[in-house]
């Protein structure tokens, strides 16, 4: 019975990812989750008390996977600059991934305080990954630099997600360039 519940919960989360990546937060409804999984709408409430609870669990499950991918890319780099480049490139490489699209959709939505705090904490963990490398590069305020760097990444993510006029590769190279050289060009 526990295995069946676990499988149903995983199916609901997978359906939630699909709904979020296809239609944003407006698409994430309990009737849509029920339809995607073949469950009765009332059964969805047995797994999640609210839409915010679905969002919170997606963050708990998906963000660590995303962060592990970024961390692994950074570990392969041998210099501080290489770590910064890997940090930016790996996050932007994940833009097309359904898990990433779901996290982006979630981040843009109106959420309750608990869900917003989980997202904030997850992003804080991601930003913390790069602080040491920025310190090695000589930044006097590496934590501030890390937050600003994440802002560059977030802006590049939005450009790619919006289907901007520029090719994704152009956006990625511009973001990496800004990360490594600032706005000097």
What does this protein structure show overall?
The protein has 185 residues and is mostly helical. 78% of the residues lie in helices and 0% in strands. It contains nine helices and no strands. The protein has helices at residues 2-23, 30-37, 41-47, 51-75, 80-93, 98-107, 113-136, 142-161, 168-181. The longest helix has 25 residues, at 51-75. It is elongated, with a radius of gyration of 18 Å.
Name a few traits of the molecule.
185 residues; mainly alpha
Would you kindly provide a brief summary of this structure?
With 185 residues, the chain is mainly α. The protein contains 9 helices and no strands.
- Spans of at least 5 consecutive residues with low confidence: none
What is the averaged pLDDT score?
A: 86
Helix count?
A: 9
What does the main sheet amount to? none
Helix content: over 70%
The gross shape turns out to be elongated
Q: What portion of residues belong to β-strands?
A: under 5%
């Amino acid at each position: 019975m526990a295995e069946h519940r676990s499988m149903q919960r995983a199916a609901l989360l997978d359906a939630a990812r699909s709904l979020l990546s296809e239609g944003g937060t407006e698409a994430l409804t309990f009737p849509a989750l029920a339809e995607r999984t073949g469950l009765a709408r009332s059964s969805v409430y047995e797994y999640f008390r609210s839409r915010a609870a679905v969002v919170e669990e997606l963050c708990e499950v998906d963000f660590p996977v995303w962060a592990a991918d970024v961390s692994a890319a950074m570990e392969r780099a041998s210099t501080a600059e290489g770590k910064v480049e890997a940090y930016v490139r790996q996050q932007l490489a994940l833009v097309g991934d359904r898990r990433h699209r779901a996290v982006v959709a979630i981040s843009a939505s109106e959420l309750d305080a608990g869900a917003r705090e989980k997202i904030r904490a997850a992003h804080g963990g991601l930003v913390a990954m790069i602080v040491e490398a920025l310190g090695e590069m000589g930044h006097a305020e590496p934590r501030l630099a890390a937050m600003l760097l994440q802002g560059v990444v977030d802006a590049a993510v939005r450009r790619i997600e919006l289907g901007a006029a520029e090719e994704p590769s152009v956006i990625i190279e511009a973001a990496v360039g800004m990360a490594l050289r600032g706005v000097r060009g």
